[in-house]
Automatic annotation (TrEMBL), chain A:
<keyword id="KW-0963">Cytoplasm</keyword>
<dbReference type="InterPro" id="IPR000905">
    <property type="entry name" value="Gcp-like_dom"/>
</dbReference>
<comment type="similarity">
    <text>Belongs to the KAE1 / TsaD family.</text>
</comment>
<feature type="binding site">
    <location>
        <position position="173"/>
    </location>
    <ligand>
        <name>substrate</name>
    </ligand>
</feature>
<keyword id="KW-0408">Iron</keyword>
<keyword id="KW-0479">Metal-binding</keyword>
<keyword id="KW-0808">Transferase</keyword>
<dbReference type="Pfam" id="PF00814">
    <property type="entry name" value="TsaD"/>
</dbReference>
<feature type="binding site">
    <location>
        <position position="116"/>
    </location>
    <ligand>
        <name>Fe cation</name>
    </ligand>
</feature>
From TrEMBL, chain B:
<protein>
    <submittedName>
        <fullName>tRNA (Adenosine(37)-N6)-threonylcarbamoyltransferase complex dimerization subunit type 1 TsaB</fullName>
    </submittedName>
</protein>
<dbReference type="InterPro" id="IPR000905">
    <property type="entry name" value="Gcp-like_dom"/>
</dbReference>
<dbReference type="InterPro" id="IPR043129">
    <property type="entry name" value="ATPase_NBD"/>
</dbReference>
<feature type="domain" description="Gcp-like">
    <location>
        <begin position="30"/>
        <end position="150"/>
    </location>
</feature>
<dbReference type="Pfam" id="PF00814">
    <property type="entry name" value="TsaD"/>
</dbReference>
<dbReference type="InterPro" id="IPR022496">
    <property type="entry name" value="T6A_TsaB"/>
</dbReference>
Length: 349, 216
């Protein structure tokens, strides 16, 4: 239910290859316009920062216009502007931050430079309502794999663990490449795995008793990626065909097994009854299913936004901005910098 | 009121023109801080002119060529302000701004060049008539390939004196002259599209090493 007295917030996201502009009123999503340059990066097998930055400049005004039109509002109706000020690609972030400042200046409205990771958590409020007083957030994407303790998302988050090498999404991209599947790898592996069986026991990173002493809530996917590549090489060397679907299913299982096992361990040991999963990898069907199944066994509730809200978008930034306005948090200054390595503990820059 | 700014060099320059002359001008003190300085300098320049954003009737922006990151800050700011204020945005080649000031200030008499820093040991360069009409360029060249005994305006001449021994006139583009140039009607306004002059692939390989998929 939209209440007209709730703040109308426009959010801008340009930390990687998606130009996102979202508009929310309170917890109600009004528009989520996204322009992606992913096709332009595909031939490089990864995001090229300069290509992404150029695309953000070209997409910015049309995406703002589309969001306003989808929401049925005029820019002058907006009460506050929120923008991802980090972490992400420096040159890409700058385009969004400069656009957000221009809107704040032209409309004479407050500006909130916000953390991309906190936005991934806040977005679920658009789907499942207010976050509980305490929850565990697992953010898994091409850039991050973190377990975060969230009490009040507008004040900060407490990092419990993170990847010590590759991000989960990065592992999907790299394994997709060795399997001859296109970039980005996540959706292609998910699809291929549906026709496969979990036949290969790939390693689970940081899961031995000794690893758990030091890295209980940390992840490692670099060894897994190497193990998959070696397995395929051995197959090819012996002249046998590579069972792409089985490799995809087995690799995906190894990733999802570790992610869900550690997330549930973190929730149980912190006496938390809600796990929120966000980031591009949260769109993975096996991760969702396994998390649901294992959480249910422990009486833990899992909240995952729909896939379109898990990947990078402007709505998540607007969702966090809306919460900041509602809680009366201090806006950012007009000299707000883009900070490519903004720490996860900083919600508003 | 015309609001003008240029971010195509290491510095940010902002000016406000009231139709008869430049009434406020600001230049950033630190280099390479376009994203941080531009918006506050716009607010400062407007306040100093006794104006608010709602008095702005047009925007003029330098479209480069210049280092990409700063250039984009200026262009996205111009386009977004243009959208939010519903005013036209006029693009001008940044080298033309330097040429206009050099001609108006009497720094040049005959044909001359404008050269700015393109980094990676190259310059952005264009050739002009005595009246300030662009005859060639802009191009991105190694200083040795653009070397000239003619008068050379801009930072390129300061950086590469062996190739451009005859440095004259302004070193950095001024937003005040950008505003005057647009209002003089002597330049064809361009769309606010960046003049990159280099393909993104040229920087792709090096950049990819740093970040393959860095955002969550
Ligand atoms: Zn993300």
């Amino acid at each position: 239910m939209t209440r007209m007295n709730e703040p109308l917030v426009l959010g801008i996201e340009t930390s990687c290859d998606e130009t996102g502009v979202g508009i929310v009123r309170g917890h109600t999503l009004l528009a989520d316009a996204v322009a992606s340059s992913v096709e332009e990066h595909a031939r490089f097998g990864g995001v090229v920062p300069e290509v992404a930055s150029r695309a953000h400049l070209e997409a910015m005004v049309p995406t703002i216009q589309r969001a306003c039109s989808d929401a049925g509002i005029a820019l002058r109706d907006v009460d506050a502007i929120a923008v991802t000020s980090g972490p992400g690609l420096a040159g890409a972030l700058l385009v969004g931050v400069a656009a957000a400042k221009s809107l704040a200046l032209a409309l004479d409205k407050p500006l909130y430079g916000v953390n991309h990771l906190a936005s991934h958590v806040a977005v679920d409020q658009l789907e499942h309502g207010a976050l509980p007083d305490r929850c565990l957030a697992m953010l898994v994407s091409g850039g991050h794999s973190s377990l975060l303790l969230v009490d009040d998302i507008t004040l900060g988050v407490t990092p419990l663990g993170a990847t010590i090498d590759d991000a989960a999404g990065e592992a999907f991209d790299k394994v997709a490449r060795v399997l001859g599947l296109p970039f980005p790898g996540g959706p292609h592996i998910d699809r291929a795995a549906r026709d496969g069986q979990i036949t290969i026991d790939f390693p689970r990173g940081l899961s031995t008793r000794k690893d758990l002493e030091r890295h209980r809530f940390d992840f490692s996917f670099s060894g897994l990626k190497t193990a998959v590549a070696r397995w395929i090489e051995a197959r090819e060397a012996s002249g046998e065909p590579v069972p792409v679907a089985d490799v995809a299913a087995s690799f995906q299982e190894a990733v999802c097994d570790v992610l869900t096992r550690k997330a549930i361990d973190a929730a149980v040991s912190n006496d938390i009854d809600t796990i929120m999963i966000g980031g591009g990898v949260a769109a993975n069907s096996r991760l969702r299913a396994l998390a649901e199944e294992r959480a249910a066994a422990k009486g833990i509730r899992v909240r995952v936004p729909r896939p379109g809200l898990c990947t990078d978008n402007g709505a998540m930034v607007a969702a966090l901005g809306s919460e900041l306005v509602a809680r009366g948090r201090q806006p950012s200054a007009l000299d707000l910098p883009a900070d490519s390595s903004l720490p996860v503990t900083t919600v508003v820059a | 009121m015309l609001l003008a700014f240029d971010t195509a060099t290491a510095q940010v320059s902002v000016a406000v023109h009231d139709g008869s002359d430049v009434v406020a001008e600001r230049v950033s003190e630190q280099a390479m801080k376009h994203g941080e300085h531009l918006a506050p300098l716009i607010a400062e320049a407007l306040a100093s002119a006794g104006a608010t954003v709602s008095d702005v009737t047009g925007i003029a922006v330098g479209v480069g060529p210049g280092p990409f990151t700063g250039l984009r800050v200026g262009l996205v700011t111009a386009r977004t302000l243009g959208l939010a204020l519903d005013v036209p945005v006029h693009g001008v080649c940044t080298l033309d701004v330097l040429a206009a000031e050099a001609v108006a200030s009497g720094a040049v008499v005959g044909d001359f060049l404008v050269a700015t820093d393109a980094r990676r040991k190259e310059v952005y360069v264009a050739g002009y008539s005595a009246e300030g009409t662009r005859l060639s360029g802009p191009d991105v060249l190694r200083p040795a390939d653009a070397a000239s005994l003619r008068p050379v305006v801009g930072e390129g001449a300061v950086l590469y004196p062996a190739d451009f021994p005859h440095a004259v006139g302004p070193v950095r583009p001024s937003a005040g002259w950008l505003a005057r140039l647009v209002l003089s009607g002597t330049v064809e306004p361009l769309d606010p599209e960046p003049l990159y002059l280099r393909r993104p692939d040229a920087v792709a390989t090096a950049a990819r090493v740093a970040a393959e998929r860095p955002s969550p």
